[in-house]
Amino acid sequence: MILQKEIEHFLEEDLREDDVSCTLVENKNVSAIIFVKEDCVVSGLEIASVTLDYMKISYVQKKNPGEKAKAGDVLFELNGDSVAILRAERLVLNFLSHLSGIATNTRDYVDIVETAGTAANMTALGCKKTPKIAATRKTTPGIRKYEKKAVLDGGGDPHRQSLSDMVMIKDNHIEIMGMEKAFEEAKRQTSFSKKIEIEADTKEQALKAAEIGADIILLDNMTPEQIFEVVRMLEEKKLREKVLLEASGGIRKENLADYAATGIDVISLSAVTNEAGWIDVGLDII
Predict the structure, then answer these.
(1) DSSP per-residue string spanning 152-202
(2) What is the mean pLDDT of each run of 10 residues along the chain (286 residues)?
(3) 33 with 52: CB under 8 angstroms?
(4) What is the pTM of this model?
(5) Residue 129 three-state SS
């Protein structure tokens, strides 16, 4: 859901009180197109359309969220007041450029884990499924929900939107109060409907987390070989099917296939959002 006050805040930041640049032109009805200048996965269409609605600009949307676009493809055909289009231009293009960059980058990661080579490697190792690619909370303050939606448009999983979505017992919690006590306190304070995840840095911690009943175990900064050992250990102890396994830390496109072949359920990485480039998007008056 995109609130009107958000659009007004974004526009106020850009327009301020003395906008001469846009008011130089006469108020007249004009047509325009918004188009991509490079191949990408499209995202940001919702925030763009709500902004256009707010500025009373008529439009026809030519692409859907998550759809692939080629250089030159039109995202929107516009018709409206010339000043309104100029005022909306930068805000709309910024969101489309940034969010399409995240969606495109996410799709690259998703494609890697779904390639035939990776699938063959996984089969050889006895793995039955490809892992989800998930984002983290390392997002731009104030626009997290838009960046998380872009991850979805790219075929990824948004993971937690906030600290309230799930209880995460991390290494600092364990250092302060111990894993078992932290887990017990989390269960006491948490509804049955909320999952509890425990971070593990070693095989021993992962086993303990599974034994005490964690819903999810985060295998942090482990190598693919170490994760593979954890998966097999939990299988041998009949604990693997009772827990989701998430890998994070030190994972990049270059080594992603190795992690995907370990039997992990989720691979979470901040790179899908904070290492995404911006897609070149333009607006031309016709």
Answers:
(1) HHTT-B---SSGGGSEEE-HHHHHHH-HHHHHHHHHHHS-TTS-EEEEESS
(2) 88 76 77 98 97 97 98 98 93 97 97 69 60 94 95 96 92 94 94 94 96 97 95 95 95 92 93 96 96
(3) no
(4) 0.91
(5) coil
* Neighbouring-strand partners of residue 216: 197, 244
Burial class for 111, CB neighbours closer than 10 Å (0-12, 13-18, 19+): middle
3-class SS at 9?
helix
Beta carbons within 10 angstroms of residue 215's beta carbon: 15
Cα 30 from chain centre: 36
**Contacts within 8 Å (CB) and 24+ apart, 2-11:** 2/46, 2/47, 2/50, 4/54, 7/50, 7/51, 7/54, 8/54, 10/51, 10/91, 11/51, 11/54, 11/87, 11/88, 11/91
Q: Which two tokens stand for residue 35?
A: 């188009």
